[in-house]
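Feature request, filed as a ticket because there's no other form

It would be nice if the structure record came with a short human-readable summary line next to the tokens. Right now we just get the raw output. Example of a typical job, pasted below so the devs can see what we mean:
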Amino acid sequence: MKINKGLCWLLICSLGIGLSLAWGQGASQNRVSKALRQVQKKPTANLYLVSIGISKYVKNEFNLTYADDDARGIHQTFTSARNKQLFKDIKSKLLLNEQATYGNIIQSFRWLEKNATSRDLVILFISGQGFRVGDKFYILPYGGSPDKLELSGIEWNGLNKSLERLNCPKLVLLDACRKRQLGGCLTKSQKALKSRRNGTVLFSSVREVQTSQEARKWRHGAFALALIEALEGKADADEDGIVFLKELDQYTVNRVKALTYGAQKPLLQKPISITELSLSVVK
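Raw output as currently delivered:
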């Protein structure tokens, strides 16, 4: 019986493609199974979240449009019920506009210091106006005066000291570089976070001398929009059902660059002590 070489070759190719697809599906299923096993374990860590968004200021010239929406969106994403697969409990504070006073912000830091333990994860999101004076950086709270930052602003070194007192991983998401004329945002004191022993990851919305953008078509700042999209699943490159810090970084940087046509590029800095963080379960 003669064998049709063309038919034989077609059968071999089909078999090869089938095996390749099966292997690919198997590898993908293994990744998902591994991730699912991770989230199915009974969580032992709590998530402590403080989300701050200030669009309204005493001086209207410093008002923003979507900073409060940014904070609200980040809060909703992290406190979603699906993330209770990752965390034993999710405890949060949301400070918007008039709520984000100097006193309330300081109290939220004290709340973290009092409650977060070494096994927990702390996430701090800040969207608002920031001022650089020399090598000092200030976050302007509601009711604060740009002319009296030493008395009414949240100074970065003070925040840094509060973070140092927390013996657990921390993730700071900073979007407070809204005015180019303010002289940039990243200072030596901020960059020093990456060397701290207890581990603080700083993810800033911009690099030096860039301006953080917001737009009506996004209904958010570019940075917050990208973060929300990433955490809800678009950053899950390996499709294992969990968004990790590395995936958050890669997606957010690329998305913000695309949204702003390269004018804004976020920067993530992390200490050696933090290799990876699981942040969100995909929808």
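Something like this underneath would help us a lot:
The helical segments are 5-40, 67-78, 102-115, 149-152, 156-164, 188-191, 222-234, 245-259.
The chain has eight helices and 13 strands.
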